[in-house]
Amino acid sequence: MPKSGASQMHTHLQASLGFDIYYGNIERTRQGARFYAQRNNGRNYFNDYLDIHQMLGLTIQIGNAHIIVHLTPIKDLEIMIMDEKLNKNFYKALHLVLQTFVDDLKEYSFSFGMFLPPMNESSANGHQMPVVWRLVFRNPVTNLRSDMNGLDLYTVYIQRTYNV
Hints:
Layout: H1 24-39, H2 45-55, E1 59-62, E2 65-69, E3 79-83, H3 88-104, E4 110-115, E5 131-137, H4 150-154
């Protein structure tokens, strides 16, 4: 079997819990949002990000939850959901996206990542994070080779080195 191929289809779930900071891509986004607020009179990066996508017609709103077709996806078919907190409308949006991928697009192989606002962060500095959920299509489940993993996409990229 080719490197990284699995002998059977299966799921993975990774979780992380920290006190003061995230790691990898999530923390980089958080720090970038802070910097954005400092450079833009306290404006919230996530609100501005959402506004741009709304102006371009790339969102679907369900209550305060927003499904976003990502302008700069990290891979094909990346979809985002943002909301201030986890609530009924967030879960409705999540269900709609997953149902669309599976029932309408017949895409059964995907990875997603989700992060919640830090419990000790306030909106006083203009950088409060929303709940963010991101999903990308993966190679078909019948492929023997792995194309990537959720950790590479949404948390920390693991550099692979090869000895020649």
